[in-house]
């Protein structure tokens, strides 16, 4: 009896959570097919008069320059994720495999910086960006995003715990350098953690509005978030076009997540390597 109650409770909680997630998405989806008057006259979830009304999507693509914003956003994501994966995995490799003074301090400072609210450091950060002449360029967010945060370092450290030290020792006996051990032995076995880091970093950058809006105010360099903000005005906000923009912006990340979710299972050693 208790087991059945537990199963029913589990599925009810899952249904409740699915409803909480799907309810606002349903409003966006239905609203993207509505006219301006129709959207503001109806409240809650209502079927649009026609699912063939695609004017909002046309305006989102052309007036919002979504295609350009996708290119700019994924260019920033590519460089930032590449740098984060390299820095995060290297820090985890050094901190896990080597013993030296100050190792714990490195992890402590990573945690300290990550726990500090970003707004507090923005005056100094903005000054650095302007001094380096990176303000209002595409390189400003890349530099700010590229650093590995403490979450990514600990994900790699957790995965490193499952890699036996004998792999390093066998490689050293064959004359491999530390760089060769990292690139040829360790990093390929960190694939589950790497995919998790990539997804977390991509979602964080893709959904961020503050840094692109502050450091790339030029209309020639829109990201997805700043492109959507164009339809917000002081006197009128086109929520139906914003809904269409958001629906379109969900598609790329949804496809990427579905393609990579199989690698986000347990962080485990999938086998050994032959040198």
Please tell me about this protein's structure:
With 275 residues, the protein is mostly helical. It folds into two domains: 1-62; 64-264, MetI-like (MetI-like fold), CATH 1.10.3720. Helix content is 68%, strand content 0%. It is built from 14 helices and no strands. Helix 1 (2-31) packs across helix 14, helix 4 crosses helix 8 (150-160) and helix 11 runs antiparallel to helix 14 (239-260). The protein is globular and about 75 Å long. Residues 266-275 have low confidence and may be disordered.
Keywords:
275 residues, mainly alpha, 0% strand, MetI-like fold, single chain
What's the short story on this structure?
The chain is 68% helix and 0% strand. It is mostly helical and 275 residues long.
Q: What is the CA-atom radius of gyration, in angstroms?
A: 23 Å
Order of helices and strands: HHHHHHHHHHHHHH
What structural class do the secondary elements suggest? mainly alpha
Look at the structure and give the CATH class of the largest domain.
Mainly Alpha
Query: Based on DSSP secondary structure assignment, what is the total number of beta strands?
Result: 0
Count of runs of 4 or more consecutive helical residues: 14
Q: Helix content range of the residues, please? A: 55-70%
Low-confidence runs (pLDDT<50, min 5 residues)? 266-275
Q: How does the major sheet shape up?
A: none
In the CATH hierarchy, the third-tier topology of the largest domain is known as MetI-like fold
Number of self-contained structural domains: 2
How far is it from the N-terminal to the C-terminal residue, by CA? 56 Å
Strand content: under 5%
Mean pLDDT: 83
CATH architecture call of the largest domain: Orthogonal Bundle
């Amino acid at each position: 009896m208790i087991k059945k109650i537990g199963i029913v409770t589990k599925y009810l909680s899952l249904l409740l959570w699915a409803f909480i997630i799907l309810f606002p998405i349903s409003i966006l989806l239905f609203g993207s097919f509505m006219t301006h008057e129709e959207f503001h006259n109806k409240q809650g979830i209502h079927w649009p008069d026609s699912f063939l009304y695609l004017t909002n999507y046309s305006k989102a693509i052309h007036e919002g320059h979504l295609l350009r914003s996708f290119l700019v956003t994924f260019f920033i994501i590519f460089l930032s994720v590449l740098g984060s994966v390299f820095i995060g995995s290297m820090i985890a490799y050094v901190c896990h495999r080597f013993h030296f003074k100050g190792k714990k301090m490195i992890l402590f400072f990573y945690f300290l910086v990550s726990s500090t609210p970003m707004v507090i450091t923005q005056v100094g950060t903005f000054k650095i960006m302007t001094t380096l002449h990176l303000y209002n360029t595409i390189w400003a967010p890349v530099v700010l995003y590229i650093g590995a945060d403490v979450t990514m370092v600990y994900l790699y450290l957790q995965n490193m715990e499952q890699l036996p030290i004998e792999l390093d020792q066998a490689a050293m006996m064959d004359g491999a350098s530390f760089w060769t051990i990292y690139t040829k032995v360790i990093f390929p076995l960190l694939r589950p953690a790497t995919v998790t880091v990539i997804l977390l970093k991509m979602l964080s950058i893709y959904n961020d509005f503050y840094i692109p809006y502050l450091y790339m105010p030029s209309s020639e360099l829109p990201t997805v978030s700043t492109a959507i903000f164009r339809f917000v005005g002081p006197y009128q906000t086109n929520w139906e076009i914003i809904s269409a923009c958001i629906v379109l912006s969900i598609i790329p990340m949804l496809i990427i997540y579905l393609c990579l979710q199989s690698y986000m299972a347990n962080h485990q050693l999938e086998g050994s390597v032959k040198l």
